[in-house]
Amino acid sequence: MTDGAGTLTGAALVVGGASGIGRACADALLADGWPVVVADLRPPPDDAGAIALDVRDREAVRVAAAQVAGDHGAIGAVVYAAGTARVTPILDIAEREWELVVGVNLTGAFNVLQAVVPHMPAGGSVTVITSIDSAAPVAGLAHYSAAKAGAEAVVRSAALELGPRGVRCNAVLPGVVRTPLMAPMLDRPGVADAFVAQTPLGRIAEGADVADVVAFLASRRARWITGVSLPVDGGMSLREHPELLGDPGEATGADAPPKGPS
Question: Which residue in 145, 130, 107 sits closest to 230, CA to CA?
């Protein structure tokens, strides 16, 4: 966030910022001049200012938001990049798995938004990392896709309600992104080529491809953008999703559902 002179005020909080897209977002915001605080279930050990946080714990999220605001005077930008996913047929999804996937991807986003906004002056920005899987059915990802679609619905409602406060809320929808978490899957013979073939721009994304858009949305250059769900996927959502069932797996991270591209 900037004041009238264009000077950044407050900190940027990146939830889920220890790795993958979240880490790239933290780096992009740092490059733009933001003081950045990373919160993560497993914070990076080399970051003394990082906060250990389970986004499903509403009170812990509230305390973390107050801590960041107290240390930096305000929270000027928030990126919600926490996430988890499983590939499971819909009739086989256990209650615990449903609660985990929905809790991290949807309830956690709501908890963070509700906790941070009281600490955001006019000009603040919230960006939630969802997925192109929110807009099209993917066999095996019913809980993940539903949670990401729900997070986008929360973003739109928040944009409507918080606009009069001068706070903007947007969602960014990645496709497949090359991160350390995705590397084992993408290194399998033929897998990366299959996803490249699904992507009109003809390659797998790097974290910075998504993070640069997130940093833009947090900046004054995006001051008239709110309530949008923006695909950042190289055009992948224009084509049919690759099949996931039949090769189940597991992964965590906003950018890396198991065996999946988004």
Answer: 130
